[in-house]
Fold this sequence. Notes:
Elements: E1 3-5, E2 26-31, E3 40-44, E4 52-54, E5 75-82, E6 89-90, H1 92-95, E7 105-109, E8 124-125, H2 127-136, E9 140-143, H3 156-163, E10 167-170, E11 180-185, E12 196-198, E13 202-205
Parallel strand pairs: 5-7, 6-8, 7-9, 9-10
Antiparallel strand pairs: 1-13, 2-3, 4-10, 4-12, 5-11, 11-13
Helix pairs in contact: 2-3
Amino acid sequence: MKIYDISMIVHPDMPVYKNKNDKRPVLSRVSDFTNGSTYESRIQMNIHTGTHVDAPLHMLPGGATIDQIDLRRLITPCKVFDLTALNEKISASDLAKHDIKSGDFILLRTRNSYIETFDFNFTYLDSSGAAYLKDKSITGVGIDALGIERDQPGHETHKILFEAGIVILEGLRLKDVVKGKYLLIAAPLKIRGAEGAPVRAVLVQEEARGRFPCFLARC
């Protein structure tokens, strides 16, 4: 069984959206063995820093919160598509070249995975691509950027996906993953009333006979 860790490492100097200092995580020591019997730390970070899941409330007033998302939506078979040849955006015509079926959870592997700093010109999913995925009735989409869209007026991509009930997973690292089918495990922290949550995302590769290990998949 091969497991790929596709999560960003959380640390103060990690890439954050638009290099905004208020999005940088702060890890502070609460106690150590010089002033107590345990070592404890406190972390302060924006919910959308690093690898995370967006919930509809992020863009839709009154939208569902992260604790309301069924975990089966994020522990599921998925497909990784290679879109590294694209430089700017992923549109409907780009997605039409790939095998996308109703009920799929798809991950978009782009050139973003090869860039270790924040790129203001990162590859994103445009509104036509979002509409295409809506029409395909997928269940979720993940991308290797800290945002699934980039400076789009009205946040069209997010809203199209959320209104269609599509889960959004951002901040993936897919450099070491080839296109194909995997089991995605991306359970978010269970934070009541939040518009998203950090996640430790991994991919489990299929066994040779074309199935996932029985204890991890829906057998």
